[in-house]
Amino acid sequence: MTFGKRQLVIAAMVVALGAAVYLNWQFAGNEPVSVADSSSVVSESSSKRLGQTTYVNTEVSNQKVSSESSKSEKSESSLKEAVSSQVSTSLTENQQSFFTGEREKRDATHEKSAEALAEIIESASGSESAKQEAVKAAEDLANNIKAEGDIETEIKSKGFDDCIVSLNNHSGSVIVPKGILTDALAITIKDIVNRQGNIDFDKITITEY
Predict the structure, then answer these.
(1) What DSSP assignment string belongs to 26-71?
(2) Furthest C-alpha separation in the chain
């Protein structure tokens, strides 16, 4: 569910950034390009990239593909079991529910913000300055979403089973499970947020749950 929401947010960002192309053409005095056309081009490009990720070499024999697929499925199944076992023993059910719920709330907030910005950018009656500000805000939101994911991945690599990172208005908040946080790890987390999210140390808060 979380993955799907993140994709919706990213899709909304694609629409917003596609609109930036429209605005650049308009401000430069060239013939306007419709937002719909820009979005369709970006969507087509995205579809091609997605298609490339699932490309399978047709020259490989069916027998080899079947064998490798079977091995891959077994490996993936074993990995999922190992991860599931690790999470279930490290986090309580209450903690798992909390982190899942907080991540869904954050992603839903991003989604609503992206939709609101897209409406401003695509509005036929909106002023050019308002659209420019919306495009900038959309770019910042897209950067924050990417940074949040990168920061969470790096924090988890330090031994945390889960965490929630939220970046907004040049500030950042991090929630980690209880029982592992130390002064040294807190400094490490702030360093990660500062480096990945460009947030000042005094604007970063860390809490445990």
Answers:
(1) HHTTS----HHHHHHHHHHHHHHHHHHHT---TTS-HHHHHHHHHH
(2) 62
C-alpha R_g of the chain: 21
Taking alpha carbons only, the member of 7, 87, 88 closest to residue 50 is: 7
| Whole-structure pTM value | 0.60
Q: Are 142 and 19 in contact (CB under 8 A)?
A: no
Q: Which residue has the tokens 């002023």?
A: 127
Question: What is residue 204's DSSP assignment?
Answer: E
Domains parsed from the chain with CATH numbers: 2-41+89-208 (1.10.287.4300)
Tell me the two tokens of residue 18: 């596609």
Tens-place pLDDT, residues 22-61: 554 444 444 443 433 433 333 343 333 334 433 334 444 4
SS3 99: helix
In the structure encoding, which two tokens stand for residue 147, read together?
A: 């940074």
- Measure the CA–CA gap between 12 and 8, rounded to whole angstroms: 6
